[in-house]
## 1
Amino acid sequence: SQGGYPTHVFAGVVFAYMGPIETKPVFPVGDRFEVPGLRTVPGVRSIFACNWLQVKENAVDPHHTHFLHVIPQLRGMDHFANEFGNYPEMTWSDTPGGIAYFAARRVGDNVWVRSSEVQGSSVHIINSIFESGRERKPASRPFLSFWSLPVDDTNTVNFFVSHVADDEAMPFEERRRLEIFGQNADRPYRDRQWIPGDNEAMASQGPVNVHAMEQLGSLDRGVAMYRRYVRDGIAAVQRGEQPAGVYHSEAEVPPTFANDLVIGVDDFPGDPNDHAALLSFAESLPKRYAAAPPMLALKRNS
């Protein structure tokens, strides 16, 4: 225990449970930590001068990916793959563990559908930022798993682990440099304005984003869904019930839906240049993943 609280050590990170001991949940070691050929490497803490909710909402906002994360490529830095700049058709869905987005885009002779997921109040998971959609695959290896800790109302810390493949071509030092780029306010202000990262996107909303001043639109559907998810969890606790995202046995921990699915245009059910067809295909994936979780398919092919 630490400070009187029960703890769990995972991948070199100490997690403390701060509730009543009789309600202590299991640490959700899900399917992303069971893929053969991968090891987990502790990450680096990232400090965000903003409310915790702004950090979590970023993970269900796929639009920032093809705008914010394409800026480095336009200004002489290799970071995310160039193919992220292909504007996708997007949808969002409840998952067994939380909320996920699904972004479908055509890349050459392929259709690439990327999904990321937020689970419970603290976890979000993403796949490789180097994915280009050029190599066909039913499932992609895990890349990063995050936990967000609210320090107070206006400061948040992210912890993460890297899922590193035994046969990874990129030297880990270079991968780590790119993983953490833009995650802290550790560069000169001018540099952060010229090539911004996630930290600038989150903290620039202010220490606490004022929701009353927002005008949410259809592109903010994932943000609205996650806020509702959080409110439902708060209401459950107020009723003395267990909120979503809390599990008391490993058997309860659900599969994850974060994935990069890449199929050939010949296998695509429709015209890959038709926006409605891309959207319809993205909308079909939550049901497909529920029946055949991506990480299960990946393990079978390992």
## 2
Amino acid sequence: MKTYAVLLSEPSVISAYPFSSRPVFVAFFLYAFALGTLFPRLGDLQLEIGLSESELGLSLIGLPLGVQLSLLVANRIVNYFKLAQIMIFGLIMITSSYTAAALFSTPELFFLTLLMAGLSVGPLEVAVNLEADRVEYGIKQRIINRSHAFWSLGFFATGLSGALMAQLGVPVVLHFAGFSLLIVALTIFSFSDFTQAPPRPSAKTSTPKFVRPSTAIMMLVCLTLSAMLAEGAAIDWSVIYMRDIFATLPLISGLALALTAFFQFITRYFGDYFVVQYGPHKVAKICLWIMFAGVTLVAVAPAWPLALVGFACLGAGSSVIFPLAMSAAAQLKDRPAAVNVAALAQISFVVFLLAPPLLGLVAEFIGIRYAFAICLPLAVLSLFSLRSLSLTPSSTEKK
């Protein structure tokens, strides 16, 4: 039985295996810190550009569209370039695009700058998850949930700092430009001498030009849809929800995003321990029910403190679903790990392609509360798709 202490420390096998989980955690943190810079200031950008909720949603589609396009060839990119190269170039592109977005005052240009940012996200998503899987195999210890925990920690840090910038009245373009310089400097410092872990010995090397989902991947997609939509709704609309429904101060509005990310971090950090103890199926089931309760509370909350509790539950409940699915996809034996990871990310991210305009239209014409309630039927689908986690070796681990 693996103990709680072992899961919080580097295992002894690392003395014979020269690759550590720490650079993986740093990669996830910096990736999320850069990607999340935009969202605490979306409300300010909406007012500066003069967008309605539906127009904002249509503009936001640029980011997931770029992600979707880049995921079509992400497996090719990660075969040609190292993680360090993808991290440095990708984060420069994301932060530069955000800074450019803050300079433009039309929905069309806003859309195009977000499209450019999204084109850098697909290879990053595949590269960091593959590195986590390779290190996990090498050190013989689960780290995938803790890796995604640091992604959530990055979103928490950028959400809280963004809320502070908004409360202090810092102009959006100065906020983005300053954070861009900081993130790029940290990334170059952290990965200039980074050595990538080798692939799993059983990994195949041939990859198709375009990624096509298998039946097993489609089952994992059904599992992840509700968590992806709930997390995406919180990222895109939580700050605007708090502002429009409760007229809260910018700092309180930003707490909705920060709390979502913080409780994701806590649950993901300790998630590997519970997965080892109880198995991925049981952990995913409990988290889906917590997410269901959180989304329901957000949809009906009569006061802002209860809404914040709902966002905390939403974050905790959605936390481990996608990481567990990514880990399951990487361990399928039918195709190379890069292909299956890219296929799952590619299809799952379709919900991000549809969510911004859909939720924007719902928010404008019916109400922003109903935009969050759309997650509820997908949560039921996820509950019926839990058996997809039993198709991989990870599900056979016992406490």
## 3
Amino acid sequence: MRIAIPVTQGEIPNHLGHGESFLIADVDGQKILKETLVPNPGHGPGGPPPVFIARSGVDQVLAWGMPAHAGERFHEMGVRVQL
């Protein structure tokens, strides 16, 4: 499973799109296999965040402060959201 978590200066921000980066972790059961920190593209190339995250092969997003349209976009692309 691949999980994405928004991050700003080592903390989880209060809004999905306001994170400076996304920590993307490949997980097998309870074991983290790989972690990658990738910059948030904002609404630029590769964005907006839901599209960027889905294109990164993410299965689940762990975040809060997500607008309804972002949650709907994740759902459309088959990415689960855990608030």
## 4
Amino acid sequence: KDYGACTMKHSLLDILCCIKCSDNLFFKENILAADKNEIESGVLACEGCGTQYPIINGVPVFQADALDQNVTAKAFSEQWSAHKNGLFEKNDVFGFTENDYISHFCYAFDIRNHHSLKGVIIEAGIGSGCLAYTLAKESPQSIVVGIDISNSVFALSYTARELPNLHLIQCDLANPPIKKGTADKVYSSGVLHHTENPSIGLSRLWSLLNNKGELYFWVSPSYVHCAYDWLRKILGHPYKWTSKVRYSLSWILAPIMWAYFFSTKRYSYKQSQETVGTIAFRIFDNISPEFQHRISKNEVAAWCNRAGIKSFKIINDLGVLCSHGS
């Protein structure tokens, strides 16, 4: 899909690396430059092994062939395309506003004033791009890098052009093309539990931090009631169905789920009643990806230990803040 004149900033090259050998990348020929600081399309190549990566609509794409075959990448591409086209919620994302997303980011890292943030901030799994865009806009001294496995990065790339400190990459977070030790903060909410091996994903994200950096991730807890998880189990393997079937089913079941939440007050994510549109979107979100793990606190501790994370604390169900503590 053509999203218009989207561009990649030259400065992104400073933190990118080859996903095969970790060597530096450079711009090859046939790059269409909007100006001296931006790239519309072309090719990145590795200085070491020579592997090439396309720049599509201003977004560098890594493992393009593998992403085309990835069930979860396809599912989330469908999901965010449907949301962007207004087929579920009209303004919110999962019932949250831009301010809600910023507030949660600040809560996760105990930040009092995000407007003065500096350094490199990576959001692993940008989804709608609401947080990445708002954070870059309201924290102009920071460098915000949004990565996602889905095509949602292309939908955001045209808007991102107006912000010199916002960069977008399409890749698998289990193999990010970002130099180790680059980031001051890594934020990943509701993403790791959709990967085949969340422990590996966490280790890779942790490696991106510098020695003073912090990482926050949120995963779905196995010990908290979730009607959406129950529904997914009943349906069997709904991610194998077409997106049209999943979309129709989401809207058919949403009023029933709304009535269940209203009568029982056993809300699955938020602490209050959500709209039918938000519930339909949450159903689609839960039944579309191939992987939908529910995680225990012991599993989180095991992941952190395997990643070499010595200092971590659970700050909600189930959000985890990791840091380079003593």
